[in-house]
Amino acid sequence: MAEEKKRTRRANGESAIYLGKDGRWHARVPMGYKDDGTPYRRHLTRPTRKELVDEVRRLEKQRDEGSARQPGKPWTVAKWLEHWVENIAKPVVSENTYDGYEVAVRVHLVPGIGRHRMDRLEPEHLESLYRRMQRAGSKAGTAHQAHRTARTALGEAVRRGHAAKNAAALAKPPRMEEDETEVEPYSVDEVQSLLLEVNKRRNSARWMLALALGLRQGETLGLRWSDVDLDNEYLKLRRNRLRPKYEHGCSEAAPCGRKAGYCPARVQVRRETKNTKSRAGRRAVPLPGPLVVMLRSHREAQARERTTAGNLWTESEYVFTKPLGGPLSPNTDYHDWKRLLEDAGVRDGRLHDARHTAGTVLMLLGVPDRVIDQIMGWEPGGAARMRARYLHVTDPMLKEAARKIERAIWGAPENLAVDKDQDNEA
């Protein structure tokens, strides 16, 4: 029987197969709809009907499974990353997470691998990018941030059928150097030195909440008086202070010529706080007696500042404010920490090192793991991993372990002295 030479009418949704005037077999395969709602059909051509039918069936299977390439030109990596970060990631992740994604995409990924087609991106392209970043001076941690961003973005592309594989999931990120990950918590003596200096400063309780209880910067700066119960000696953590983000408020006709954050008419475009997203993060934390005393004194000092400032005072419910009211800026808070370390004669460190210090002190005091997890705000499923990251074995702990081994194996110190005398007599 001769092969079909004319087009045949097909039901809606069926593929049309026909022999063209060029002597080749052609097919129009319905693949769904374009962004504007119009139908999209993929055109295929093969020299024989059998080859074409096989290809049509393969494409229909991809379509039905949701793994077929979408209509239009193939995505470039740059086009996908820019679309992903603004339209997919931004509406569902926190502001801080978005900022990290956006910087990685704009500064590193788009310039480094953006020209590749999505379906032609290989793990080696990413590994080459990480090496170039490090040769240009980026730390391994920065390359890791770019790697995590690429892995997340390309994973979404695979789920949506824009790529057959996640090249970032196959790529090997650079090895993190030990000095980039190792943290040395402050000793008890250093904490006491900081305490002496803290008592001379405004907002002194802010630093002791970090050193004694391990509160994160956002948790401390987002704390409101309604979250603090001094009579029952505890506080509730349920929101985080966000880093401010500004846009220019000056007119395009007369721009100020400064960065947005320094524009005289700047407009804040980010909310001040966000609710803590995890259940473990929303927690009650007990207050030691000295901290209760410090917070009572701080509340009285804040009331005096409010009275002195009068109409200049910016009213807010925050526990820690600027001298004229209003929430503290995370950037100002960071620089205050650096000055505190310098004035106290304590070695330099990150503000987050105070959190490592608090967790280690809790372990040193023999506080049960479950209570440490509650105070630090760690999820039950990942608490063991977080303890391994934040709780550090200090020299005093090692010495105490050595003493326990000594007592267990050789007995009490007095017994050792008796044994030595007996040996000398013999």
Unreliable sequence segments = 1-9
**Could you say which overall geometry the principal axes of the C-alpha atoms support?**
elongated
> Kindly state the mean pLDDT as a whole number?
82
Report the radius of gyration as a whole number of Å: 32 Å
- Distance from N terminus to C terminus (CA atoms, Å) equals 115 Å
In terms of structural class, how would the helical and strand content be classed?
A: mainly alpha
For the largest sheet, list the strands in their spatial order: 1-2-3
Helix content: 40-55%
User: What is the number of strand segments?
Assistant: 10
Main sheet attributes: strand count, strand direction, barrel closure: 3 strands, antiparallel
Q: What's the tally of helices?
A: 17
Helix-strand pattern, N to C? EEEHHHHHHHHHHEEEEEEEHHHHHHH
Strand content: 5-15%
